[in-house]
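Anyone opening a protein record will find just a pair of labelled lines. A complete record is shown below as an example.
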Amino acid sequence: MAKGESLTEKQRRWVEAYMGEAKGNGTEAARLAGYKGNRNTLSEVGHKMLKLDTVRAAIDERIAEDPLVSKRHDLLRFWSEAMRGEHRGLDRLKASEYLAKAYGMFTQKIDIKAEAKARVVFYVPDNGRGVKK
């Protein structure tokens, strides 16, 4: 967290809940931290919290300090070993898929269809052959 920046008490409680009892669920963390509202409102709170630099920094700091949290290189090493058949319990093909996803080797095609109502006007200069504006 940047020097001089700190969390409000509710934000601190949200981070504690998010990292603990809510198990990474921002909506549940908002409820546990004392935010009020329906599920949609609490969901918005959770979403906004994850966008705040101070909250992200607090989460990252907690993760870095927790010896039980696997780091990225730990996962990559495990998947690599599993892909080579050095670990039982994880299919080699599944391990290779996880590795490929981690390295961004898969792309996802997203087909977006949209309708737009707009008036488009073209002004074509009169070339002397009867083309109208």
